[in-house]
């Protein structure tokens, strides 16, 4: 047994296209699902299909002649257009980069490779493979050979194994497991997608065809559960969600190119015209100002051209004629022009700044407001720094483009057209001579700017390396000193600084080569003007000295815009990318919109809302599988077999239903129920599976389990930070979706392991959730949280400013402030997520006291690794691998000897040790 | 041999304790025999039932690939650790190397033919010991030193490539690498 029977089929020569004398046997052209087959390969494979009695064919062996049997029975006639499932890998059977095709036909699975690849001596060169992309398929070969064949009747299962640097498709057959084809990670997503394309109904209709009979549909058939994926991406196969494979988030889903490391927008796929059009809409509210600004710009530009022209009058008329009166007029005109230009320039400058700041303010506020309303899933997928850079970095980029670049481009174009017209009017030949170097200048500038950008990018990288050393070591200076690494750090910094020095020198060298070169190129233009024009002036052919002076003057004015416009494309690109990143945020649906969408999608959910009972009925335990009455008009007594769940209380403080069916305002009782709740963060693995849990109002439930078991995910579903993938959660018998989101969240207080405090005073932080609280309320809350004492020890008391994230306070102090904040919010439901795990025993005692006060009369879910902190819990629920495995009082669970008892004894032993 | 012990997955003492806490055996190379079993390994610790090893993983794949190997079952649970690899018998070592080679397919870059950079995406056309390849790298942070003269390149899809010694590259290739490091 083993792998010895796995060997190539036949000899290459026998399978080569063109060497086979027999005509193709298949009845029709197969429909290919998956990667399109090259025409030559299709023809080659068609010449081998339909083939043998599949079940009787030996696995991966036998001469080609043995496969020349035709189908028998009624199936033979209906295979006219079979479906073939095709996948192109990028690694061949010798583990070299070369295409290898997996073709799944109605009767067999083939692996086929180009003949040139398989017969190559070592495959080191000449078998290059472009990165697979829809737009860039591998070049088709002309000859192929089959390197592996598995009759489908022998195939039990196809599965993907993802390894560290690659993966492979594996076939489990009736007698062995075979590696079908290896693939790099570039094809990992594609192979998963291919596997999922294999039709489910075929895999469900798992009855194998009788020996020698193909699938009547003429399509590939795999047995039930034939498609399995494993490896690092699906670490826990039992936890795997039956979802489609995820795409590579680092590549653009449209074009397949990698996304820049600093963006999740593909710069190649941005519709620049559309994006910039949308951007210009931000100018619309201020169109009078924008129009005025543009008009001023054009006037200023026109005025800039006049003084050069006036020199012609001076040279041609004023000086030769010694005309003082005309001199005064010309000089006066020049003075007036400069005066007007300055005045208009100042006005325009202010207007530009006003307009720019106005637009960026609007945009910034809009983004920030929108960010506040975005769901947590948005933040999960992005780094905080990246989001912040969109607010602080991209909006100024957009502003710069709108108020500086766009008008400037207008000015440049106007200048070019204006100067061109003047020059061609004066002397067309000399004008042509003047403009002759323009394309050269434009091309040189474009190339240089790319090169210099690259050099500067390297310099910036070196700069960021240098900064990284600083940000590492300065905050961690105590660690550096403790480990006596001062010298090492100094050397590291010196090396980075030296790198930066050399990179800037390189940039300076480049700039100082380009600048003089361009100067020389332009001076050639002026020399040509002086040469040709000078001759014209001397010969008296109508060209005056004044004209010549005008030409030279305008030439220098002309080439500035030429150089600028040569790099305008990069300017557009930068602005479009920045705008796209901003619009991506603005286009992400906010929580409220999601909520409305949810309500729209699920009208039944609204109809399922139970009728509030007349009185606040006592809670009685119901089975976890209890069902809710199906209609709003259905009386509670109508449910015969299942108890109606206690519904929203109608006391004066209870929430009220509004016209949209949501519940607003008031206070809840605090009963929580999870009904068959499952949750997956990214759609591939479930963090929670089929959770059924009912927590009574005022009950304290401790959640226990190992790290990553799903405890925090479970509690995060209650305030709707995330939406369950399946099932529903009810508060007081009402599904979460029917609660107005702010109303819901006002009922919930959360105390985290790492309390987040804002920059501000201690008083402000405590009153964060209740801005109307009086100073007395704040102090009482702090007293209840055992925080008052240390706050009063501070010189500024409650007005002490705490730094960003509460720097300057100990972990226990910050925690007590966050408890005070929760107390002041007065929530009905309290979530404690490892609230005491980061503090010492003495502080823990203080916090425990504070929590005991806070918990009183509230529904509490407490997550704790230190089980002793849960000894007062009414109930303990043990979560393991996303499921609830134990539930009961601490005493019951200790007696039962399950996971809780195990963990309890383990911690007891550890504390003794 | 592979099918004969198909139902045995781990030694009893390695069973996971409640709460996910487990005790993992540590074997020296002389205490275990390894056999290829298809694409996987069969680990036979002396005096203990054989184990089906689904994956053999190096905890330090670049800096200490030969120091310790972790054996895992098909659910990613650790079956045991293998240390002192030099004490393995020849057959076991060959079996292990074959499986590791399969797990860590990392082509070696021998030459960089062309280099392009746009929007911080570095595109190299390279010649590797497994053929030519165009690789796209998302920013230079994916090109890093992993030892003296040794460079690791990770492309946009997570494929890893190794430059065993930058100094031994041709001048043009060396210049391209140097620009990014």
List its traits.
heterodimer, A: 913 residues, alpha/beta, Rossmann fold, 6-stranded mixed sheet, 5-stranded mixed sheet, 27 helices, disordered N terminus, B: 181 residues, mainly beta, 2 domains, 4-stranded mixed sheet, 3-stranded antiparallel sheet, 13 strands, 13% helix, 40% strand
Please characterize this protein's 3D structure:
The complex is a heterodimer of chains A (913) and B (181). Chain A has 27 helices and 23 strands. Chain A is α/β, with parallel strands linked by helices and 913 residues long. Among the domains of chain A are: 12-239, no CATH class; 726-912, P-loop containing nucleotide triphosphate hydrolases (Rossmann fold), CATH 3.40.50. In chain A, the strands form six sheets. Chain A has a six-stranded mixed sheet. Chain A has a five-stranded mixed sheet with strand order 1-2-3-4-5. In chain A, strands 8-7-6-9 form a four-stranded mixed sheet, covered by helices on one side. In chain A, helix 10 (384-426) packs antiparallel against helix 11 (428-435). The longest helix of chain A is centred in the middle third of the chain and has 54 residues, at 486-539. The relative contact order of chain A is 0.06. In chain B, strand 3 and strand 4 (51-53) form a beta hairpin. Chain B has helices spanning 90-103, 171-180; strands at 26-28, 32-37, 40-45, 51-53, 55-57, 68-72, 78-83, 109-118, 121-128, 131-138, 143-147, 150-154, 160-163. The N and C termini of chain B lie far apart (49 Å). The chains are: A alpha/beta (913), B mainly beta (181). At the A-B interface, strand 8, helix 12 and helix 27 of A face strand 9 and strand 10 of B.
